[in-house]
Design brief:
Layout (H helix, E strand, L loop, with lengths): L1 H19 L4 H28 L5 H31 L2 H29 L2
Helix pairs in contact: 1-2, 2-3, 2-4, 3-4
Length: 121
């Protein structure tokens, strides 16, 4: 199970590095959102499996679901900002998109940090 989860994390790191090389903001944002969503989906499937097996405490489940909700809200907002920026190309919308992409990155990192102990078994 560890290997399935490490691939999306590695992909996210690679995509974040692409930002440093002045890749197109739209493409980079799309790529980050896609990899973050894959990481989220994989994480939530793993948590559901652990919960189904009775290996997840109720408190841990609440923490994971709360972090997942925060990520999901950030992701949805970033998608909206990406659409707006693609339409306008304005500096203000670019700044809003960049801030939202940072929030998405932080939210998925928080979620992955919470579920990391479950990967060590």
């Amino acid at each position: 199970m560890k290997r399935k989860f490490l691939v999306p994390i590695l992909m996210l790191a690679i995509l974040l590095t692409a930002c440093a090389y002045n890749a197109s903001l739209v493409k980079t944002s799309y790529d980050i959102l896609m990899v973050a969503q894959t990481s989220y989906d994989t994480s939530m499937k793993m948590i559901a499996s652990l919960d189904k097996q009775g290996l997840l405490d109720p408190e841990d489940k609440v923490r994971v679901l709360a972090a997942g909700y925060i990520y999901h809200q950030a992701h949805n907002s970033a998608v909206e900002f990406l659409v707006i920026y693609k339409e306008t190309g304005s500096a203000t919308d670019r700044e809003l998109l960049e801030k939202q992409i940072t929030l998405v990155s932080n939210a998925i990192a928080d979620l992955l940090t919470i579920i990391r102990p479950f990967l060590e078994d």
